[in-house]
Amino acid sequence: MSRDLGNFDLHNNININVLDEHDYGIMTTIVHEILHVVLTKNTDFGQLSSFLLKVSSFSKRYKNTALFLVDEMRYVQEAIAVFYEFSYLKESLESSEEFKKALRDLERGNKKYYNYIKPLLFLFDINEDKNDIYKLVKLIGVCSLNVSIPPFTRDQLINTGKLKTLFTKHNISTKNKFLEYVNDVKEKLKTGESIEDIINGIASKQEEDVERGKDLPKIDIMKIIETDLTDEKRRHLSMLIKADEYLVAPDSSLFDLISASSMNTFKWTYTDYVTMINKVTEPGGTLYIKAMLLNNGELSYSIEFIVIQEEKRYLLDFVSKQQLNRLIEETYVLNAICCSPLLIDQETKELKGIAKNCTRNIYVMFNNSFAFTEKIFEHILDENVSYEITSLNFDSFDVYLLPYKPKVPILFIVFPVVKYAFKREMESKFNLKHTDFSVLLEQKKVNDHTFDMIELMVNTVMQFPTLK
After folding, report:
1. DSSP 41
2. Assign residue 407 a region: left if phi > 0, alpha if psi is -120 to 50, beta otherwise?
3. Residue 294 in contact with residue 305, Cβ under 8 Å?
4. Cα–Cα distance measured from residue 152 to residue 162, given in angstroms and rounded to the nearest whole number
5. 146 with 45: CB under 8 angstroms?
6. Is 137 helix (H, G, I), strand (E, B) or coil?
7. Is the separation of the CB atoms in 119 and 179 below 8 Å?
8. pTM for the whole thing?
9. Distance of alpha carbon 328 from alpha carbon 344, whole angstroms
10. First vs last Cα of the chain: how many Å apart?
11. What pLDDT digit, counting tens, does each position of 37-95 carry?
């Protein structure tokens, strides 16, 4: 089965496939995905489509429009991302012949992606500062996706046919705009104009377009969609948008957003409480307490039981505290139990709703980016406490174990490209002292089953496929 090599999601994670081989090395995939983030977060089209994808998770009627906008900017997005990917590859190869071969292989093996990069191939032969060429290509992408979208109605926003008609009427096509920029660059290079002067000319024109756009009526998109969302959904949407701003500081590196992924999804089914009780007694699974929900004003939980051999997830929402604690008691002794960091009470540092006399280890597990992990630690770690931490090496990433409290270890995954940044910044900022696993074993903070339990959790929560 073919899986994506990378993507980025609504929670600002750049997910990189750690299972499959990357044709030109994993760094080319990372560069490719980072450019998608840049073009999405810094353009009108990107921000609107990203916003509507968030909205569609609360109101499905906006999903087709969001996907239409994503598709409308796909050509530009991929052209820029593939160009940067192959620019990185060109610098890493030893000879120009190897690079030409890589382009020929792309043309033969992935015609679709070759056609994305084809209009920009001439730039690989330009004898100018490579950083200026990178600036030029990124600027072309940003300008192509920064279009003056005319005011639209709610009816047009939920009806892609009507939105397409509006775009056609106003001659809106990001692909055509991109190709116009590229052809203009070609003509100017023929006259001897430098890349730097071309960049200044495009930037100046973009500023003029922005000034003209200020005269257009402003669109209050929140007002347009508010009739389709309950107060609770509007509040959740607002939290999701604020999380974007909170996680991505202006001076943060986009490498901080990378996280490891299997790009694999087990089949899932909603089940009932009695079935869930029976499932957790079977070996080879992880009980995952995902989130807390409000049910008629009472705190309840959303849970999954993930079975590795079945490659299946059993889901159950609105589980009461009493039901949750019974599920924990009934879970087979060699099955793992883990939860989201959301369950940690910021005041008491205890797990919300878990019985005080619970005898099982409940791992706080997350697989998020460097930026997200840092924010989690700011909320759950005490700045006056020194914490021991150990790392376990897996094939394509490291798993870090932090004995947070008795029976509550913290488990999180660190992607290789941010491992040294983690050691440099996180260990000093949060008083983390690196310790060998054997030392924790002597201190009885872990036991002989800990590694097997961690391996089970990683394989189930990250949904790694089994070998069949």
Report:
1. H
2. left
3. no
4. 10
5. yes
6. helix
7. yes
8. 0.79
9. 17
10. 13
11. 889 888 888 888 888 888 887 778 888 888 999 999 999 999 999 999 999 999 998 88
Kindly calculate the radius of gyration of the chain based on its CA atoms and give it in whole angstroms: 25
Question: What does the block give as tokens for 297?
Answer: 């004003």
- Give the C-alpha separation, 371 to 378, whole Å: 11
Contact present, 306 and 285 (Cβ < 8 Å): yes
d(CA 135, CA 22): 26
Cα 17 from chain centre: 11
DSSP secondary structure letter of residue 415: -
Q: What is the arithmetic mean of pLDDT over 214-222?
A: 57
Structure tokens at 140: 């072309």
pLDDT in tens, 110-122: 999 999 999 999 9
Rounded to an integer, what distance in angstroms lies between the CA atom of residue 190 and that of residue 181?
Answer: 14
**Length of the chain, please?**
468
- Distances 227 to 223, 232, 275, 437 between C-alpha atoms, Å: 8, 12, 38, 54
Instruction: Give the C-alpha separation, 342 to 323, whole Å.
Output: 19
- Span 167-211, pLDDT tens digits: 999 889 999 999 999 999 999 999 999 999 999 999 887 776 655
CA atoms within 13 A on the CB side of 153: 7
